[in-house]
Write a structure and sequence with these properties.
By secondary structure, this protein is mostly helical. The protein has three domains: about 120 residues, no CATH class; about 140 residues, no CATH class; about 120 residues. It is built from 13 helices and no strands. Helix 5 runs antiparallel to helix 6 and helix 12 runs antiparallel to helix 13. The chain is globular, with a radius of gyration of 20 Å.
């Protein structure tokens, strides 16, 4: 029997299943709470969904893509093992210290590839170190609160940095170019991603000026939200995201590539923007508006982009992206989960609606996993559209 070379394993094959398990566990606690089986999951739910689900998928994608964007060495077996241990430990340890360790690991991985790069990544990649900084700052502060080293009042800005800063930075940093390509407005990415990185390796002040301004305004938004006025800071982040969405993704137009994948990415981008603006303009909606961002924006986008990673890196045909109904099926269920969670604020059975939304979310994960997990685990095989 041919032995598997650990150095040949793509990171997404390790981290996507871990993230999927976190995504199931993170919402199932609301169903268990509705039946009185567990206590109110005030900390376990966001921990599993952000530090577990979103960050595990981000690890899988970034550890696969960053070496190709920079021409540096791919993830080695030690890095894969350490990353997998950190991502999996969240099943047993509900601590912000673990989140800090996971983001520290990703920071070291990203920094080493950036230092040893053969060519420079796209300019908007500057959002990635910004996201790592916000995540580390937030998780460090939350760890100090957790161990009663600082006052609990620091938890509010810390959660803002960690939950609302890190993943949005990752999405804008990678997505400024990748989503533009998937929507048809930039050269299409191959599974090597080289076509997106070698076009212009020389430093250009003009090329970096606008992303630098956008990143500065984005960071300023957090400072304003913490020190001055929440709605103004949120609005500034929404402006930056809308700027990138209109300039790079051209959301004011239907996708140039007409496929199931591109259409639902377009919908998810719009849902993200609607969520960001709703969160800014209607502060009374609070966490309910934030779930428009997290479910229809981050959650749906994560599943959609991951489906492309699995097909392209796994050597599969991209034909399902054009014809398969699986995208409409699981994406629709995700949006139903989002609307159920958002509308819970106007019902007399708020906690029951949390459980209903969790059930719909878990159903969408089952639908997504039933189609894409066999491809992730077993490699390229003939398949049929569903």
């Amino acid at each position: 029997m041919k032995r598997l070379d650990p150095s040949s394993i793509d990171p997404y094959r390790v981290f996507f299943p871990i993230g999927l398990a976190h995504a199931l566990l993170g919402t199932s606690v609301w169903i268990l709470f509705a039946f009185g089986i567990v206590d109110y999951p005030a900390q376990s739910h966001p921990h599993q969904m952000v530090s577990g689900f979103l960050f595990s998928f981000a690890l899988g994608f970034l550890m696969t893509a960053v070496p190709r964007f920079t021409g540096a060495a791919r993830a080695n077996p030690v890095e894969l093992l350490l990353g997998a241990c950190l991502a999996s430990a969240g099943f047993f340890l509900n601590s912000y210290l673990l989140t800090c360790g996971l983001l520290s690991f990703l920071t070291v991985f990203f920094s080493r590839r950036l230092i040893k790069r053969s060519f420079s990544p796209p300019p908007h990649f500057m959002f990635i170190p910004l996201g790592l900084f916000l995540g580390l700052l937030g998780s460090i502060l939350l760890s100090l609160v957790e161990f009663q080293r600082i006052d609990s009042s620091f938890a509010i800005p810390a959660k803002l940095f960690l939950y609302h800063g890190t993943m949005l930075c990752f999405l804008l940093g990678i997505g400024a170019r990748l989503l533009a390509a998937l929507l048809g407005w930039a050269p299409p990415p191959t599974h090597q991603v080289e076509s997106m990185t070698k076009a212009d390796e020389r430093f250009s002040a003009n090329k970096w000026r606008i992303p630098l301004i956008q990143a500065g305004l984005f960071a300023l938004g957090f400072l304003i939200e913490v020190t001055f006025e929440a709605s103004v800071g949120r609005g500034l982040r929404a402006v930056v995201a809308s700027w990138i969405a209109m300039q790079n993704w051209r959301l004011y137009r239907l996708p140039k590539i007409r496929s199931k994948l591109s259409f639902w990415i377009w919908i998810s981008c719009w849902t993200l923007l609607i969520g960001l603006w709703t969160h800014a303009l209607f502060p009374s909606f609070g966490v309910h508006a934030a779930h428009l961002i997290f479910i229809g924006g981050f959650g749906l986008m994560t599943l959609l982009v991951s489906s492309r990673v699995i097909l392209a890196h796994g050597g599969f045909s991209l034909e399902p992206e054009a014809r398969s109904r699986i995208y409409a099926v699981f994406a629709t269920v995700v949006l139903l989960a989002m609307l159920t969670r958002f509308s819970a604020q106007w019902t007399s059975s708020l906690l029951h609606h949390y459980a209903y939304a969790a059930g719909l979310w878990n159903l969408s994960l089952f639908l997504w996993g039933s189609f894409f997990l066999p491809k992730l685990f077993f490699g390229a095989k003939p398949h049929r559209n569903i």
